[in-house]
């Protein structure tokens, strides 16, 4: 069939793999955005910058401390999450009772500060990060060659996304989180410290961005602009899936990544805009997004 279309199977499956890898990062990043917006009603424009910070933390740990990929996979998200806690406690908390636009402007300013600071310190050239020895090489599937590390990124991202969805939608802690967004006073009456829960929620959301940064470091060179190049697409993914929808962020992120891959095969010129075209169509048909709820 593919030969009839003049498309080698290797090219199609190769682009599908690239699309699935991109979709994994879209899903992780949009999941963090959905958690923060769904629970805190904050449009976190600093998310892409914190993704970049996660990649740089992994690189700095390796370069200056000698800590490799596997410990960094735990330490970098914790460090980025701790940074998020500080930002929420010192800045964002003051803006919850005012218009959401102020939170958007604040986080956008923070993104510019982070990117400018890292660009000043490290320049704009990318810093290489080696693939861990355990994940080097690949597998010949007959119709394509599957690099082991890229397969790991896809599998691990889907696992993290699934675990996050389950924790928020199917556990008592997730029920408390959802209730705290609807009626924080009532939840506080049950002895739950809502401000601490809000801080931890923001910290967890940005920790997901830091985790995505560590996963991306061996694939894309670590540089201060890596988040700026990705965050616009991720915001489009969140809008398409439905602002605040956990399932929407995961499904839409993976699906649009695959769609981008297919578009690069059949119509390469449209691959950079296909996500935004779909966003425009979805907003016209269902403004709340595919998985969002109309208010």
TrEMBL record:
Presence of keyword Transport: yes
Domain of life: Bacteria
Single GO MF annotation: transmembrane transporter activity
TM spans (from-to): 12-35, 42-62, 68-87, 99-118, 149-168, 200-220, 226-259, 266-285
Protein localization: Cell membrane
Alphabetized UniProt keyword annotations: Amino-acid transport, Cell membrane, Membrane, Transmembrane, Transmembrane helix, Transport
Protein's GO biological process: amino acid transport
GO cellular component: plasma membrane
Entry membrane topology: Multi-pass membrane protein
Primary subcellular site in the record, as a coarse category: membrane
Family affiliation: Belongs to the binding-protein-dependent transport system permease family. LivHM subfamily.
Protein name: Branched-chain amino acid ABC transporter permease
